[in-house]
Amino acid sequence: MKKLPHTIEAMESLFVNAKRRSMVFLLVGVLWFACCAYIYATTSNEHLKTSLTVFFWITVCIWVIAAVFQLFVIAKTSIELDKISDERIGNFTTEEVRAMFKEVLDNTVLKENPTVYINSLNIYNAFAMNTLFNFYKPINAIYMTRLCFDVLNREEILAILYHEMAHFNKYMYMESKTMSLGLLFFLILPFSFTVLVPGVFLKVIFVILMIFLVGYVWKKIRAVHEFEGHALEYLCDSKASERVGALPMINALIVLSRENVTLDLESNKDRIKKKVISTKPRVLVDWSHFDNHIVNGKIEHEEYDQLILTLEKTQNPRLIEDSEIDEDGSSHPSLTNRVLFLHRNFSSKRV
């Protein structure tokens, strides 16, 4: 793996280049769909017309099933913050929670004002959705699970919200904004032309060649390079840190990582771990080395320098045992790397 860029500027450059390729690939998908539509409208080959129709609906059905399932789960487990009648959400009154969201939205809304939802899924998490189909409110929204309000303080909640608003406003790729519809058309529609090839053997050869061709075009235009998904998270962490300081962002990440590990261990001790990028042995950092001013599993200002010193002198460190969040995945960098990234970019500022 290439060496991780350490600066916000390098990550911003990585994001800009990746977003450009993402938009180019979306354009290729649209042009390909338009080409298929033109062929459908002009061809006299009824078999080809039927094949194009069948593969079009296969694509639409796959997309709809995936989207509807995702939105169904979200809708069944979420309620708009403005419609919540409970007096409290976790450790805060509902009015305090509304005030926190209002503060973040007032400071960050650019073109769109997202709907805010509180989610009841049994996980400590927050996420943003901002698609091109945002006439439907749940896909133009910011979500935070109720459990977050049980373990985070006000500054940490603000940090998470600023992070998600950075996603909502800017740091997303077009695949997310289109819910991968263009990608599915690009991957599936080419196989509708199999009907033009005579004989089973030649059809098989055609399909194999088409798989290689689609893969080649994907790799040339939109193969996701290393750190592209990571860049989104680093940049959103940075935007949050500019608002509330790096330490609340760091503590929010640490707390949510640790609490999710506890949930995972309680619910499924034999769970299958997700695939991670790096398989190098990780060295667990002993919290007692730095969590000694106030022993609470968080980092106070008085403990911060010792935390960073411990991480930097440890070969391939990790902060949370058994945490998938503290592993470098395809879309998210490890918790440890996120902490070190914030330190390297905000150590000279208010931590």
Report on this model:
This protein has two domains: 1-205, 2-Layer Sandwich (Zincin-like), CATH 3.30.2010.10; 245-351, no CATH class. Helix content is 57%, strand content 8%. It is built from twelve helices and eight strands. The chain has helices at 8-42, 46-77, 94-108, 148-151, 154-169, 174-177, 181-188, 200-221, 228-244, 246-267, 301-313, 335-346; strands at residues 78-80, 88-89, 92-93, 115-119, 126-130, 140-145, 283-284, 317-318. The strands form three sheets. It has a four-stranded mixed sheet with strand order 1-4-6-5. It has a two-stranded antiparallel ribbon with strand order 2-3. A two-stranded parallel ribbon has the order 7-8. Strand 2 and strand 3 (92-93) form a beta hairpin. Mean pLDDT is 89; it is low at 269-277.
Brief characterization of the structure:
With about 350 residues, this protein is an alpha/beta fold.
Radius of gyration: 23 Å
Strands across the major sheet, in which order? 1-4-6-5
C-alpha termini separation: 30 Å
Q: Which oligomeric state applies?
A: single chain
**SSE succession:** HHEEEHEEEHHHHHHHEHEH
Number of strands: 8
Q: Write down the overall mean pLDDT.
A: 89
Say what the CATH topology of the largest domain is: Zincin-like
Uncertain ranges: 269-277
Main beta sheet strand tally, sense and closure: 4 strands, mixed
Helix content: 55-70%
Number of separate helices = 12
Any idea of the CATH class of the largest domain? Alpha Beta
